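Cast an eye over this sequence plus tokens and walk me through the fold:

***
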Amino acid sequence: MPRMTVNERPVEFVMNPETPLLWALRDAANLTGTKFGCGTGDCGACMVLIDGEALRSCLITIAEAEGRFVTTIEGLSRDRSHPVQQALVAQQAVQCGFCTPGIAIAAAALIQRNSDPSKQEIEAAVPNLCRCGVYPRLVAAIQQAGRVARRQERISAAPASGISGKDAARTVPAMAAPEVEAAPLD
């Protein structure tokens, strides 16, 4: 069965190896922040980081992800302190929120490799579809996140989610902080 590291935790999926990573994350790992949008790789709602690269999880099987490091929106920052998450809120670049996790993942990958992207670089690196049309604010948010990443600017913290980390971890076990000493997989 395919094994990988998801949000810094070792995971083995006891599923058909041809299962799309999207469904393994949502259905087996209960990481529902990764959204199902189109299922054909066009919308970007299902973006996750795989070995630091933003990829569409609907197009990757768990067999293809075996041995790799996967980061979902839940693992990007457990307290929403990632510069992209902070900037999306600060620039009011979140509307209905459905596409936001995929956008945040794609933007985080961009900021990791280029913390001073141009508008054209942002548009190329974040091809996600947003039916609410936040695109102008999205560019501003990603550029602001880059300034934060370069330590040229600070953003006041996004409002608290209204649920404690412990309560979230009880509801979604994958949200729990990784153990200091993880048991080895057999």
Notes: Residues 180-184 have pLDDT under 50 and may be disordered. The two ends are 11 Å apart (CA to CA).
